[in-house]
Amino acid sequence: MTIATPSRATAYYALALVAGTNLVSLLDRNILAILAPAIKADLKIGDAEMGLLYGTVFALFYALFSLPLGRLADGWIRTKLLAITIGFWSLATGGAALATGFFTLMLSRLCVGIGEAASQPAGTSLTYDYFPREKRGMVMAVMAAAIAIGLGGSLIIGGMAAQWWDARYAAGTAPLGLRGWQFAFAVAATPGFLIAFLMSRLPEPQRGVMDGIPTAHDPHPFRASLNVLGAVTPGFHWLSLARTRATTRDWTLNIGLLALIILAVLLAIHWSESFSPRPPLLLGGVAISPHVVQWSVIGFGAFVIANLLQNLKGRDPVAFALITRNPSLLLCIGAGALQSVINYGVMGFTPSFLMKGYGLSPADTGLQFGLLSAGLGVVGPLIAGPLSDRIGAHRLSRRVWVALFAMSLSPLLAFWVYHAPDAGDFYLRFTLYSLILTMWMPPLYAVLFEQVLPRMRGLTVSLYIVVSTIFGLGIGPYAVGMISDARGGDLGGAILSINWVAPPLVLILLALLWRVERDHASLLPRARAAGEQV
């Protein structure tokens, strides 16, 4: 059922379900962080390999499939899409309970990445058609708060479930021989099935009505989605280029970019092997260096981005023009990607830092740090979202000021936090740090989504996800793990090292302040000039 003008109650119910989707997404994604010490001990791997599982493997498939699923979200029924994908990634999370080695756990993680790829593009697009512009800061605040609860909840559920199971069953007596960390994955998978059922019964709002830009029905959304997947997947994309009769210039550009990416990957592998030598991993019976896996995935993702933009230019020149010729949109994506390097690097290893540095148990770490990070992750966005609505409803630059405050101050506070002498002092310092750190997302997202037309929001979210996932989630945790291994397990120093991406991040936000008003004011004229009928 499609509704043109949803009621207030229906809108807030939809927001609650989309927030619940974000919550279970981060629950299933982040539970690996609290289980890392037990998984490392059982599978006999290091911090760098945990970074591969937490970030890189997940990031590749999450980023790749967010593109076709984002396109599907722009043309198909978003409530059905979300229901199907939530159920899929919940099954994949439960599948980790049966993992017996690095390779099988990796397969579970990549399937979780495929399913979760629809959550942000479809969820954000859906809520934007339930709420008017002046409420969207609040909407993004609720979404960010749900993400924080999912992050915190993953630590609480994972730590307590794993510790309870291991205490309940001595070695060799557990049903199916499951370890505590395997049982924790099974527990984490459960709530997703309820959210999927409720989402399947949610009415679909009419696209674009809230913005006064009604959007025509897409007659072939699945065909378009498969075309996007084929056009961006390395190897298959050459078939797409041949089918569309690409020019010699297009082929030269594509192959030239591939050569540059391969060169960058080889240099990164060589540097990583010198900086932090690691034993090979056994993947499907083949021994391979984790550094080769890491940087090949990043290179693959970078080539996906190049293919996406090249395909978009031929398939939707209006969207290509509005995205690539809008400095503010590109600056938002760049800022979000750099902040993701920090966020994922910090959150991926802080539970391990607490257990190793202060001698806390998994259950204590999960309960204490999980509750604290979840609570602060709710408060920060709920301050920043309405604040940016109040001061920036008619001037986007004021929203940027809120993001700049959070993203420039929090890295400085990190050096104070991770030098705390004991756990109590750490939690006290982390309270201020996390409150400020979590304020960046609502204002930056609100600015980002105002830079394109309603029909392009799913695609824009997908592009943002690809860039921030490949270069944020894909690099942040692995970099922290690699630095930790190179320094003999110094997780605190490794976590702090990742904050050195903050100076270029601040420069990007200053440039965004300078550009954002003029770029937003020129959106409709630029769209009309590119051929859009608006």
From TrEMBL:
<feature type="transmembrane region" description="Helical">
    <location>
        <begin position="329"/>
        <end position="347"/>
    </location>
</feature>
<dbReference type="Pfam" id="PF07690">
    <property type="entry name" value="MFS_1"/>
</dbReference>
<feature type="transmembrane region" description="Helical">
    <location>
        <begin position="251"/>
        <end position="272"/>
    </location>
</feature>
<feature type="domain" description="Major facilitator superfamily (MFS) profile">
    <location>
        <begin position="14"/>
        <end position="519"/>
    </location>
</feature>
<dbReference type="GO" id="GO:0022857">
    <property type="term" value="F:transmembrane transporter activity"/>
</dbReference>
<feature type="transmembrane region" description="Helical">
    <location>
        <begin position="183"/>
        <end position="202"/>
    </location>
</feature>
<keyword id="KW-1133">Transmembrane helix</keyword>
<feature type="transmembrane region" description="Helical">
    <location>
        <begin position="292"/>
        <end position="309"/>
    </location>
</feature>
<keyword id="KW-0812">Transmembrane</keyword>
<feature type="transmembrane region" description="Helical">
    <location>
        <begin position="81"/>
        <end position="103"/>
    </location>
</feature>
<feature type="transmembrane region" description="Helical">
    <location>
        <begin position="12"/>
        <end position="39"/>
    </location>
</feature>
<feature type="transmembrane region" description="Helical">
    <location>
        <begin position="138"/>
        <end position="162"/>
    </location>
</feature>
<protein>
    <submittedName>
        <fullName>MFS transporter</fullName>
    </submittedName>
</protein>
<dbReference type="InterPro" id="IPR044770">
    <property type="entry name" value="MFS_spinster-like"/>
</dbReference>
<feature type="transmembrane region" description="Helical">
    <location>
        <begin position="51"/>
        <end position="69"/>
    </location>
</feature>
<feature type="transmembrane region" description="Helical">
    <location>
        <begin position="492"/>
        <end position="514"/>
    </location>
</feature>
<dbReference type="InterPro" id="IPR020846">
    <property type="entry name" value="MFS_dom"/>
</dbReference>
<feature type="transmembrane region" description="Helical">
    <location>
        <begin position="461"/>
        <end position="480"/>
    </location>
</feature>
<feature type="transmembrane region" description="Helical">
    <location>
        <begin position="430"/>
        <end position="449"/>
    </location>
</feature>
<dbReference type="GO" id="GO:0016020">
    <property type="term" value="C:membrane"/>
</dbReference>
<feature type="transmembrane region" description="Helical">
    <location>
        <begin position="367"/>
        <end position="388"/>
    </location>
</feature>
<dbReference type="InterPro" id="IPR011701">
    <property type="entry name" value="MFS"/>
</dbReference>
<feature type="transmembrane region" description="Helical">
    <location>
        <begin position="400"/>
        <end position="418"/>
    </location>
</feature>
<feature type="transmembrane region" description="Helical">
    <location>
        <begin position="222"/>
        <end position="239"/>
    </location>
</feature>
<keyword id="KW-0472">Membrane</keyword>
<keyword id="KW-0813">Transport</keyword>
<dbReference type="InterPro" id="IPR036259">
    <property type="entry name" value="MFS_trans_sf"/>
</dbReference>
